[in-house]
Amino acid sequence: MTATFKGKRSTSGIEHILLDIFVFALIVAGIFHWHCSQYNSRLLQLYQDNEIEVSWEKQHVHELEETVNNVSSSYDELLKQNMEISRRLSEMEKEQELADEENARLRIEVNTALANLRGTRGFKVGDVVELSNPSRHDHNKLQVLPPFKVDKRSSDGIYQVTRVTDGITFKHIEEKFIRHYAPYPPGTEAVCNIGEFGLQQERFVPCEIVTYYAKSSYGVMMLQGQYKVHVKAFQEIEEHDVEIPVWKVMGKR
Question: N or C: fewer beta carbons within 10 Å in the chain?
């Protein structure tokens, strides 16, 4: 009887141990499952965060692309507008040049007419004139005629004049050798002083009248006008355009 009782007690102890082991295993499995669940939740959260970040980056890149495209379109439009403005300005400059040439031509015609009218009444002190001897004029060869300024006039029609290109005075000039100065029209062959005023400072070169800018239509103020001339190649001088005052130009008539 005693042996049988001990055996049953031993079996019951083993069952308790196995039960404890099973419970412990369940606890460990639960803890492991909880950690795995937490880890998976973190991974899922990281993945979702990454998805959101990538989506935001894509949206940002798309917005940047749209901005670049808009800026590019605006730049192209501005470039077209700038080209159109440049073209219109170029046309306006050409129109202005033509208008200036036409105005210069009209001034010359008016000045010539005024000079012809004044020539019938003699010359006054301060008039700008030219000296010319018609009897010595070779019609096959143009004369270089510098402008002069009338300094004095006697009662018998004798004049004293000063050549404005170098300041040299000429006396006892008869009225028949004097005529009023009229600006040279475009295309006139001339001799231009591209140097300074004074002895051994002048530099005379061949040139051609491009246009005339009037300061006054009569009197000594005519000398304050300007010619735009085309200087021709001469010795070491290269051809070029330049604006110079009236008194530095001697036209051929």
Answer: N
Buried b (16+ CB within 10 A) or exposed e, 171-195: eebeeebbbbbbbbbbebebbbbbe
How confident is the model over 61-73, as pLDDT tens digits? 777 777 777 777 7
* H or E stretch covering 46: helix 2-119
Structure tokens at 182: 């009229």
Q: How far is the C-alpha of 223 from the C-alpha of 147, rounded, in Å?
A: 9
What pTM was estimated for this model as a whole? Answer: 0.48
Q: Please give the Cα distance from 208 to 187 (Å, whole number).
A: 6
CA distance 32 to 43: 16
Q: Report the 3 state secondary structure along 89-101.
A: HHHHHHHHHHHHH
Chain CA centroid to CA 30, Å: 83
